[in-house]
From TrEMBL:
Name the UniProt record assigns to this protein: Glutathione hydrolase proenzyme
EC number(s) reported in the record: 2.3.2.2, 3.4.19.13
Subunit structure: This enzyme consists of two polypeptide chains, which are synthesized in precursor form from a single polypeptide.
Reaction catalysis annotation: an N-terminal (5-L-glutamyl)-[peptide] + an alpha-amino acid = 5-L-glutamyl amino acid + an N-terminal L-alpha-aminoacyl-[peptide]; an S-substituted glutathione + H2O = an S-substituted L-cysteinylglycine + L-glutamate; glutathione + H2O = L-cysteinylglycine + L-glutamate
Entry PTM: Cleaved by autocatalysis into a large and a small subunit.
Record Gene3D superfamilies: 1.10.246.130, 3.60.20.40
MF term (GO), any: leukotriene C4 gamma-glutamyl transferase activity
Pathway in which this enzyme or protein is active: Sulfur metabolism; glutathione metabolism
Signal peptide annotation: 1-20
Keywords assigned: Acyltransferase, Glutathione biosynthesis, Hydrolase, Signal, Transferase, Zymogen
UniProt source species: Polaribacter marinaquae
Cross-referenced InterPro entries: GGT_bact (IPR051792), GGT_CS (IPR055262), GGT_lsub (IPR043138), GGT_peptidase (IPR000101), GGT_ssub_C (IPR043137), Ntn_hydrolases_N (IPR029055)
Name of the coding gene: ggt
Length: 561
């Protein structure tokens, strides 16, 4: 009898364990952490924190290390955005987005009959925007840096001289870009060879450029030898960036978008990044629904988020652009009444076709590769940075003699209204090209607070899918009470108004859910090559420790203490 009841208990425990989903817990640190696309960069950032540096010092070291160890998106030839929250609760944002060259013009990617010329805004020197990363790094340093700058940049220089160990994923990525490096450049770049896991990639010319930045500051990039090498090579290849463009570039401190979602305060990036506005619109559209009654990643959950996303991306395409050039009705777009009104056409019974969803009516105007890293320091400051060259290895132009890759961010403008960019995103006049204008971005570096305390630092690459990946991770943690790694591991889906498809990560969703969605009129797209974000995030646990969410979709890793 005793044996029998023990057996029943054992069977019950076994069944319970089998039903319980695996919950992966991420790397835990007591007080300080960096999570980025590569272990080397996270360790360099964490070592700066260990030396007594703050989150901003670590930001600079991590950013520069990524430019060496993660050339697909880490960069000094690109740009990005930073959102921060200091330990006293103050928040802010830095825009170091690229901008159009002075001689850029609205129709520069169109042929004589007004058609978009294929690849002109994505491949080669004509696709390059004026880079902002180094200006961004020095803005951060001048406002918040505490350690000597040379200590922050030297690890990246050493990494470039000694070489980085190529991972399996990186070898595949580099090999897939070889033909395009060859096509674009007029010499053999350091990135062209048949790479395999374990190879060492040394970048001597990049090290020399970083040394000039170490010794001369911002002028080591925007003036002098680096600037001449940059401009001369771009000209040789038919590009239009001038010395004046480089000299005039400025990173801009901006007021971030701040809003509440239920009990949480969310701070995210403002224009020219669309992330914060779209995130606010989508979360506000979802807020009236009781998610405790809607199962995570169920048909209903996917429906609700998809319909909110559809309406927000339609607004994105019509209204959003560089706020310094166009009048964007930010307050109206993020107004709860307006958002609820937009959701009135949503029905649980069938999909709203995107052809029936245009942008909303605003009464009166008031106004793929990318990479993300999250940092929390031992003083309680938090930094959320997303940076990019745009698509993998940007324009594929590697500045001869200077060793860094240039972005192809000009493709984030709308080359022609109604013609999608590389991410399938549409744009309007608001995001048309103009001299010195910043192109609209989807980047969404974000910080979440609960009861006035830091809760989460989050962001991701992924082009147009950035916003929806950040959104899903915020809901995973705030609504579904997941840990950080558990949240990052969840399969993700994405809708962006047009094309009218729900993109889903392969093998992530059950067949019944997909079948039900199709019955309701949703078109589903599942393809192996789809990138739906690579989230690197930090969660502050109830005991004050930090849990990392380092995305297993890449080589991402956390470091801390
Ligand atoms: N280049 C991608 C983005 O900024 O959204």
């Amino acid at each position: 009898m005793k044996k029998k009841s023990l057996l029943i208990i054992a069977v019950f425990i076994l069944l319970f364990c089998a039903c319980k989903k695996d919950k992966t817990v991420g790397f835990i640190a007591e007080k300080a952490m960096v999570v980025s696309a590569r272990e080397e960069a996270s360790k360099i950032g964490a070592a700066i924190l260990q030396k007594g540096g703050n989150a901003y010092d670590a930001m600079i070291a991590t950013h520069l290390a990524l430019a060496v160890v993660y050339p697909v998106a880490g960069n000094i030839g690109g740009g990005g955005f930073m959102v921060y929250r200091n330990n006293d609760g103050t928040t802010g944002a830095l825009d170091f987005r690229e901008k159009a060259p002075i001689t850029a013009h609205r129709d520069m990617y169109l042929d004589s009959v007004g058609n978009v010329i294929k690849n002109k805004s994505t491949l080669g020197a004509f696709a390059v925007g004026v880079p902002g990363s180094i200006a961004g790094v020095f803005e951060v340093y001048n406002k918040f840096g505490s350690l000597p700058f040379k200590d922050l940049i030297q690890p990246a220089i050493d990494l470039a001289i000694n070489g980085i160990t190529v991972t399996e994923k990186q070898a595949k990525s580099l090999n897939s870009a070889t033909e395009r490096f060859k096509k674009v450049n007029n010499y053999i770049t350091v990135f062209e060879k048949e790479w395999k896991k374990g190879d060492i990639l040394k970048q001597e010319e990049l090290a020399q450029t970083l040394e000039r930045i170490r010794d001369l500051g911002k002028d080591g990039f925007y003036k002098g030898k680096t600037a001449s090498l940059f401009v001369n090579y771009v000209k040789e290849l038919g590009g239009i960036i001038s010395l004046e463009d480089l000299e005039k570039y400025k990173a801009i401190w901006r007021k971030p978008i701040t809003f509440n979602y239920k009990d949480f305060k969310i701070t995210s990036m403002t224009l020219p990044a669309s992330g914060g506005i779209c995130l606010a619109q989508i979360l506000k559209a979802v807020e009236p629904y009781d998610l405790s009654k809607i199962e995570h990643n169920s048909t209903k959950y996917i429906q609700l988020l998809t319909e909110a996303e559809r309406r927000s991306y339609a607004d994105r395409a019509n209204f959003l652009g560089d706020i310094d050039f166009v009048n964007v009705p930010v307050d109206s777009l993020t107004n709860v009444k307006y958002i609820n009104n937009r959701m009135k056409s949503f029905s649980w019974d069938k999909a709203t076709p995107s052809s029936e969803v245009s942008h909303g009516k605003i009464i009166g105007y008031e106004s793929d590769e990318t990479t993300h890293y999250s940092i929390v320091d031992q003083f309680g400051n938090a930094v959320s940075v997303t940076t990019t060259l745009n698509t993998g290895y940007g324009s594929k132009v590697v500045v001869k003699g200077a060793g860094f890759i240039l972005n192809n961010e000009m493709d984030d403008f709308s080359s022609k209204p109604g013609v999608p960019n590389v991410y399938g995103l549409l744009g309007s006049e608001a995001n048309s090209i103009a001299p010195e204008k910043r192109m609209l971005s989807s980047m969404t570096p974000t910080i979440v607070e609960e009861n006035g305390k830091l809760k989460m630092v989050v962001g991701t690459p992924g082009g147009s899918t950035i916003i929806t990946s950040v959104l899903q991770n915020i809901l995973n943690v705030t609504e579904y009470k997941m840990g950080m790694q558990e949240s990052v591991d969840q399969p993700r889906f994405h809708h962006q108004w047009l094309p009218d498809v729900v993109r889903m990560e392969p093998n992530g969703f059950n067949e019944e859910t997909k079948a039900k969605l199709e019955t309701l009129g949703y078109k589903i797209l599942e393809r192996n090559s789809l990138i739906i974000g690579r989230v690197d995030a930090i969660l502050v646990l109830p005991n004050g420790k930090l849990e990392a969410g380092a995305d297993k979709r890449g080589d991402d890793a956390a470091a801390g203490f």
